[in-house]
Amino acid sequence: MTNRVGPPLLYVVRRLPAMLLGALLAVGFVHAQDLKVFAAASLKEALDEAGQQFQRANSQKVVVSYAASSALAKQIESGAPADVFISADLDWMDYVDLRKLIRAGTRANLLRNRLVLIGPADGKAQIEIKPGFALAKLLGDGRLSMADPDSVPAGKYGKAALEKLGEWSSVESKIARGDNVRTALIFVARGEAPLGIVYETDAYAEKKVRIVARFPENTHSPIIYPVAVMASSKKPAAPAFVIYLKSADARAIFEKYGFSMEK
Questions:
Q1: Could you tell me which of 167, 34, 158 has the C-alpha nearest to residue 88?
Q2: Quick one: 208 and 229 in the same domain?
Q3: pTM for this structure?
Q4: Which domain range does residue 142 map to?
Q5: Does residue 46 lie in a domain region?
Q6: If exposure means fewest CB atoms within 10 Å of the residue's CB, which of 21, 143, 145, 198 is most exposed?
């Protein structure tokens, strides 16, 4: 004997009043027209504001999904419906590019950032980052908060810098790994880690932390944010949005949040 939970879906759809069915289809169409942007977590405040400005000027809703660039690249590879991708490093943009997931001619380097060491806002620590600055001793029994150094751009930059400074081997066992740079920021903001490595713009976004020191830029590769339209996108607004992100209006927003524009 077969248990029936309810009438078949097709039957229910056929029984819907024409006006209601039309409204449901219209809602689905509207959402399908949203511009879907996948962006590195460190861009949140700046890109939220830029997206709102673009939306007001173009009557085009921008929906942004934030996460680690590594996670977003893997989602795009798996078929996630992104129109635009902004990575926090070149490697993960290369990853989707090599898989022919980028529309030809749309890729560009957009922004730059800095890598910093942070501590609690009420801390007094003064640190000069240089070879042999004894980071493990500064941590004491605490842990160093950073994004996953094996995959997430902020973590990879941080690991490279510590290796260059000769500090990685002494702190590797003390790492508190975050799934993205904002998780690493939260660990310090909540007092769960005495020190952390994040981008300068992340430190500006959180009042409960302070920049203890900036990493010399020669200790890691340049922190560059590339942007591109996805090959699967059919929306005219996608390339228009990338052009807007390079404009003077967008520049003012990004610089307000601590980014510098790539020349």
A1: 158
A2: no
A3: 0.86
A4: 115-219
A5: yes
A6: 21
Separation of alpha carbons 160 and 146, rounded Å: 12
What is the amino acid identity at position 37?
V
Contacts of 24 (CB under 8 A, 6+ apart): 16
* Tally of structural domains, the chain: 2
**Neighbour tally for 115: CB within 10 Å:** 22
* Residues listed for the chain: 263
- CATH number for position 199: 3.40.190.10
How many CA atoms within 13 Å lie on the side-chain side of 247?
Answer: 13
Q: How far apart are the first and last CA of the chain?
A: 70
Which residues on adjacent β-strands are paired with residue 144?
175, 195
Residues 202-249: pLDDT tens digits? 999 999 999 999 999 999 999 999 999 999 999 999 999 999 999 999
- Lookup: tokens for 158: 């941080």
